[in-house]
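U., I forgot to send this yesterday:
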Amino acid sequence: MFKNKLLQLGVIILIALALIAVVVVILFNTILDTSPDPNDPNANVKEKVENVDSKKYTADELIEMSVHMNDLIANLSNKDIVQLSLTFELDSVDAKGEFEKLDYITKDIVLKTIADMKPEDIEGAKGIDFLSATLMNKINPKLTEGKLREIYVTKLIQP
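Result:
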């Protein structure tokens, strides 16, 4: 191929270095990839929740804009039963009115969301935050008069 053995050795070394560089770049991008997995349904829950209004309200205003859902009983994906109570804080009185009219949709969303969860999904403070964020992201698109500001889990009984 090449008449000069030194030139042949140089070309082989360059090709080997190029291949090593390609492998290193691929491994570096794979290992340090911080983008969310598109197949992970929980990947962007917090990202969506962070866009919610954070204006301060008085206690009386909060009461006027809150809806309670008490003693809801639901099955988890493993057939365990949980009992929970939720308080939904909306961003306006008009939103509260719409939310109350659509309570059947909200209950359906809550039941379906819990039905897809395992007991460990709602354990501890992180689990409750995850449940609240997931519900908020599923309920907010259904509202036209305003948005949910916060969901409080006021009771959670699980096996």
